[in-house]
Design brief:
Radius of gyration of chain B: 20 Å
Largest sheet of chain A: 6 strands, mixed
Number of strands of chain A: 27
Strand content of chain A: 15-25%
CATH class of one domain in chain A: Alpha Beta
CATH topology of the largest domain in chain B: Monooxygenase
Strand content of chain B: under 5%
Largest sheet of chain B: none
Distance between the termini of chain A: 27 Å
Oligomer: heterodimer
Shape of chain A: globular
CATH superfamily of one domain in chain A: ATPase, nucleotide binding domain
C-alpha cells in the first residue's frame, strides 16, 4: 500500500513531482525493461504480451525494419542482415572479433581504429547503433506503457565489462536519446532485486552466466550497504559458447563439412540452442538438421560443455582469493542469467560453494528488476534510506612506461569512485612533449593489456632529462568510466581528456549518427536538449540557493556571496528567456565555475564535521 | 577540493599506528552513505562532479588506513619524514641475505616436488616477517625514532612486494 505524505507544519512541501525512470537489462540474448510501480518493481510487457525482447535487430535496405521477436524470424532466412548477440562486439576491436571465430555470420569492415562495422544491406552499421535500436525499442515500450516521458534509465552492464565496453554502452544510450542515471553492474542489480539488503548480513556470491558474458561477484552486505569485495569473470564466455560447442558436435555428427554458409551456420546454432534448452528438463532429445536425424543425451552434452563450466569455476576461485574470502564464509549464492538454468552449471556451482544456490527469482528478469529499484532511488522518488552500493573496477588501469611495460595506477577491485595520481618525468634533455598511453589489464606487458587511449601532453618547458615533473591523474567515476589528466607541475601546462577508448566512437561520429537517425527529427532533438538544460538550470538554482542560505555566512565573504547571488539571478533570467540550449548550457557551466570554490569549501567542511566527535555507537545508531 | 584532508581527521579517529579496522569500516560506510555520488544523482552536474571527488578522497583515505604499509608511510609523512623509499639502499647485510634467500625460494617454487607446499611455506615465512616488521615500526614510531621507523618501512615495502609476487605465483600455478 502506498501511504500519502504529509509535510511537517511550517515546512513548505517540496513541489515534488514524481519522476519516471526505468531499469534496462541490455543483454546479449534478451533485453528487458522494468519500472517500480506502487513500490514494487515489475518488468514491462510489449504489445504481444512478452516481457522479454530478444536482442535482435533486422536491417532492410531502407533501414531497421524489425527489432525483437519479429527480427528473430529473419534469423535463418536473412542471416547477414539479422544482427544478434551484438553485445559481444561492443567496445571490441577487429582482433577480438576475429578471436570469436566463425560465431558471427556477418561480414565485418574495419574502417578506422574503432569497432569493426557490420556490412548490411542498409550499409555499414556499428554495434553501438544496433544496441541503440534495442534501447530505443525498450524506451518506447516503457513510455507507451506508462504513458509518460522518461527522465532517465539505469542500464546494466556485466561487472567484468572494461572501460571500452562501458563507454560503448553509454554511447548507445546517447544515440537512443536515453539519459543514463547510472551504469549498474548486473550482479549488484541482482542482489538488490533479491532484497538482500533488508534481512541479510554477510557475504554473498553472485554467479551470473548470461548469453555472452560470465561474472562472479563477491559482495559483503552490512546494514543496507552492498559492498563489492571483488569481481571477476570473462567478458567473452556465455551461453552462446555452450551453443557453439554443441553446434560443433552436431556438425561433425551430421557429416556437414567445416565451411558452412551463413544459413547452415544459423540452422546448426538454432538446433544446438533448442537441444540445450530441452536438455534442462529431459535426458535425451532428438535433433534433425537438414536431412540428418540423430539424438543428443544430457551426459554427452555435459561432456561438450564441462570445460567451459570449469572455466567459470576457476574464475570463482580466483575472485574469492582477490576478495580474501574462503568458500565457507559465503552464506548465499545467487544465480543470475538464463544459462544458469543448465543442470551442469547448477550442479557445479552447488558443489563448489557447498550451498544450494538461490534462484527463486526468474534469472532472466532479476537484473532488470534490480536496475528499476536503483533507478527509482536515483531519480529521487524514493528515499535511499540506508541502501548504498559500493562497486569496484574489474581490471587494473595503468600507463605505458619505458620498455613497453605497464605501470598500474589503479588496481583492480578498487572501490569506485577512485582517483589516483602518479608523477612521471622526461627521458631526454629538452623533451617538450610526452605520450600518455592509457591501458587496462593486469598483465605486465603493454601488448597484453587493452589500449584505451593515447594522448600527448605538449608544451613542457625544455629542461634536462628527469627535471620535469608530470603528474598524471586517473579518475574513475561511479559508472566505472575513466577520466585522465596530465599536468606538468613546474609550468602548470595541462592536458585533460575524457578517455575515449581507442575502440569507441568519436564525439563527431556520435553527433553524425544522431543527426542521421531518422527517428529523431532535428526539432525533436533541439527540444529535448533544451528541456535537459532547463532541468539542469533549475537544479543548479535550487542547489545553490539552498547552499547559500545555509552556509554563506560561515564560508563566504560578503563580496563572494554577492557575486554568487548575482550569478543565480542571471541564470534564472536566461532560463526563462532563451530557447537556445547551447546558450543555456554555457551559462550553466559559467555559474558552475564561479561556484566551484564555494562547493569545495562546503564539501570540505561537511567531510570534516560528518563524524567529528562521534563514537562508534553514535554512528551505528545513525 | 582541498587535498590536504587528513586521513585520520576524515574518519575522526586518533592519529596512531593502531587502527581498529572494523570500527574504521563502520565509519567508512557511514561517510559513503552521505557522500557517495548516488546521493547526488538528482543534483546539478557541478554537485555530482564534486561528489565523485569527495567519495574518491574518502575511498583513498580508507585504503591508506587499511593497508599497514600505506598507513606506516602516511604516518611518517605526517611526521615530516619523506616516505619515498625508492632511494633507500639498505646497509643491513642480514636483511639483504634474507631477501636473496626468499627470492631464490620464490623462483624455485614452480620446479619444486610439491609446488603448493613450497608456496605455502614461503608465504608463511613472508607473512610472519611482515608482521614482525609492523610491530617493529610501531615501536620506533611511538618512540619517535623516525629514522629507524623509516628503515623499517623500507623493509616492509620489500615484503609487501614479495607477498604480491607470491599471490601472482599462485595464479600462475593454477594455470599450469
Amino acid at each position: 500500500m502506498v501511504l500519502l505524505q504529509i509535510s511537517e507544519p511550517g515546512q513548505s512541501p517540496q513541489p515534488h513531482q514524481r519522476k519516471n525512470a526505468v531499469g534496462i537489462d541490455l543483454g546479449t540474448t534478451n533485453s528487458l525493461v522494468a519500472v517500480v510501480r506502487s513500490g514494487m518493481p515489475e518488468t514491462i510487457a510489449g504489445q504481444s504480451g512478452d516481457h522479454i525482447l530478444p536482442s535482435v535487430v533486422h536491417y532492410a535496405a531502407q533501414g531497421v525494419d524489425a527489432v525483437g521477436q519479429e527480427a528473430v524470424g529473419f534469423n535463418v532466412s536473412d542471416p547477414l542482415n539479422t544482427i544478434s548477440s551484438v553485445k559481444r562486439l561492443m567496445g571490441r576491436g577487429i582482433n577480438d572479433v576475429l578471436m570469436l571465430g566463425d560465431q558471427f555470420p556477418y561480414t565485418f569492415q574495419q574502417i578506422d581504429e574503432g569497432m569493426p562495422k557490420i556490412d548490411t544491406v542498409h550499409g555499414l552499421i556499428s554495434p553501438v547503433q544496433v544496441s541503440a535500436e534495442i534501447l530505443r525499442t525498450l524506451v518506447n515500450l516503457a513510455e507507451q506503457s506508462l504513458d509518460v516521458m522518461l527522465d532517465g534509465a539505469v542500464i546494466t552492464v556485466p561487472a567484468y565489462f572494461d572501460e571500452a565496453q562501458r563507454q560503448a554502452t553509454k554511447d548507445a544510450a546517447t544515440l537512443a536519446g536515453v539519459k543514463v542515471l547510472r551504469l549498474l553492474n548486473e550482479p549488484t542489480a541482482a542482489a538488490i532485486a533479491y532484497g538482500l539488503d533488508a534481512e541479510h548480513e554477510g557475504i554473498v556470491a553472485i554467479y551470473d552466466l548470461g548469453g555472452g558474458t560470465f561474472d562472479i561477484s563477491i559482495l559483503q552486505l552490512t546494514r543496507g550497504v552492498f559492498e563489492v569485495l571483488a569481481t571477476g569473470g570473462d567478458s567473452a564466455l556465455g551461453g552462446d559458447d555452450l551453443d557453439h560447442a554443441i553446434a560443433q558436435w552436431l556438425r561433425v555428427q551430421s557429416g556437414m563439412n567445416e565451411s558452412l554458409n551463413p544459413m547452415e551456420q544459423r540452422i546448426l546454432l538454432e538446433a544446438a540452442k533448442a537441444a540445450k534448452e530441452e536438455l534442462t528438463e529431459i535426458d535425451q532429445v532428438n535433433v534433425a538438421i537438414l536431412e540428418w536425424e540423430g539424438s543428443l543425451t544430457r551426459s554427452v552434452m555435459n561432456g561438450l560443455i564441462d570445460d567451459l563450466v570449469a572455466r567459470t569455476i576457476r574464475s570463482c576461485r580466483r575472485t574469492m582469493r582477490d576478495a580474501g574470502i574462503s568458500v565457507d564464509e559465503i552464506q548465499n549464492v545467487v544465480l543470475v542469467g538464463g544459462s544458469t538454468r543448465n543442470p551442469l552449471v547448477r550442479e557445479q556451482v552447488a558443489k563448489f560453494f557447498g550451498l544450494q544456490p538461490m534462484c527463486s527469482l526468474d534469472p532472466d528478469s532479476v537484473v532488470a528488476l534490480g536496475a528499476a529499484i536503483q533507478a527509482d532511488i536515483l531519480v529521487g522518488n524514493k528515499s535511499a534510506g540506508d541502501m548504498l552500493l559500493l562497486d569496484v573496477i574489474p581490471l587494473s588501469l595503468g600507463i605505458e612506461t619505458m620498455g613497453g611495460l605497464t605501470e598500474k595506477i589503479i588496481h583492480r577491485n578498487a572501490t569506485i569512485p577512485v582517483s589516483k595520481a602518479q608523477d612521471f618525468t622526461t627521458f631526454k634533455d629538452g623533451q617538450t612533449a610526452m605520450v600518455i598511453h592509457v591501458l587496462q589489464g593486469d598483465r605486465e606487458l603493454v601488448d597484453d593489456c587493452r589500449s584505451l587511449a593515447k594522448f600527448e601532453l605538449r608544451g613542457i618547458p625544455p629542461m634536462v632529462a628527469g627535471a620535469a615533473k608530470i603528474r598524471v591523474t586517473y579518475q574513475v567515476d561511479a559508472d566505472g568510466l575513466l577520466n585522465v589528466t596530465a599536468r606538468e607541475l613546474t609550468s602548470n601546462v595541462e592536458s585533460r581528456i575524457e578517455v575515449k577508448p581507442s575502440y569507441g566512437l568519436g564525439e563527431t561520429e556520435i553527433t553524425k549518427m544522431l543527426q542521421d537517425s531518422f527517428s529523431y527529427a532535428r526539432d525533436d532533438m533541439q527540444a529535448r536538449a533544451l528541456r535537459e538544460q532547463q532541468v539542469e538550470a533549475d537544479r543548479m538554482v535550487e542547489d545553490l540557493s539552498t547552499a547559500l542560505v545555509k552556509d554563506a555566512t560561515s564560508l563566504l565573504s560578503e563580496e563572494e556571496s554577492q557575486c554568487l547571488n548575482l550569478a543565480i539571478t542571471e541564470l534564472q533570467k536566461l532560463r526563462l528567456e532563451t530557447t537556445e540550449h547551447r546558450v543555456l548550457a554555457r551559462k550553466i557551466e559559467a555559474v558552475g565555475k564561479i561556484s566551484e570554490t564555494f562547493a569545495a569549501r562546503r564539501m570540505d567542511a561537511s567531510i570534516k564535521s560528518a563524524l567529528a566527535g562521534q563514537s562508534l555507537d553514535d554512528i551505528e545508531r545513525g | 577540493m582541498n587535498t590536504s584532508n587528513d586521513c585520520f581527521e576524515i574518519f575522526s579517529i586518533p592519529i596512531a599506528w593502531d587502527v581498529d579496522i572494523e570500527g574504521l569500516q563502520v565509519r567508512y560506510r557511514a561517510l559513503q552513505k552521505e557522500f557517495h555520488p548516488d546521493r547526488y544523482a538528482d543534483k546539478s552536474d557541478a554537485q555530482k562532479r564534486l561528489a565523485v571527488q569527495t567519495a574518491a578522497i574518502i575511498n583513498q583515505a580508507f585504503g591508506t588506513l587499511k593497508s599497514p604499509l600505506l598507513r606506516a608511510q602516511y604516518l611518517l609523512e605526517r611526521s615530516g619524514v619523506s616516505a619515498d623509499q625508492e632511494s633507500y639502499i639498505t646497509t643491513d647485510s642480514g636483511f639483504l641475505m634474507q631477501q636473496i634467500e626468499l627470492r631464490e625460494a620464490l623462483a624455485g617454487v614452480t620446479s619444486a616436488d610439491k609446488p603448493w607446499a613450497a608456496l605455502e611455506r614461503l608465504r608463511s615465512t613472508v607473512e610472519t616477517t611482515y608482521e614482525n616488521l609492523q610491530s617493529e615500526f610501531q615501536q620506533f614510531y611511538s618512540a619517535e625514532k623516525f629514522d629507524s621507523a623509516f628503515n623499517t618501512v623500507a623493509k616492509m615495502q620489500f615484503f609487501n612486494k614479495l607477498l604480491q609476487e607470491v599471490e601472482q605465483l599462485e595464479y600462475e600455478l593454477e594455470d599450469l
